[in-house]
Specification:
mainly alpha
């Protein structure tokens, strides 16, 4: 079953943090192989997440920050 860009982006943070199950992760992998628009978003978010983790230590991302990042990414669409 294929997923839409909105579905992929909705699961962006969980995908990057490897918090999805194998089936959900595989669906996003397949989507990213074909969708360069989403691939750019995922690459940007991954780099941003790496920077935040390096700056903030090993703390987990607060839910409000996660929600705000997802909201901003969705607005870019």
């Amino acid at each position: 079953m294929k997923i839409t860009c909105n579905e992929a982006v909705k699961n962006l943070i969980d995908y990057l943090h490897r918090e999805l199950g194998n089936i959900e992760r595989k669906k996003i992998d397949e989507h990213l192989e074909k969708c360069y628009k989403c691939c750019d978003k995922f690459e940007f978010e991954e780099k941003l997440s790496d920077i935040i983790c390096k700056q903030g230590g090993d703390e987990t991302c607060p839910k409000r920050l996660k929600s705000n990042i997802i909201k901003l990414i969705n607005e870019v669409e």
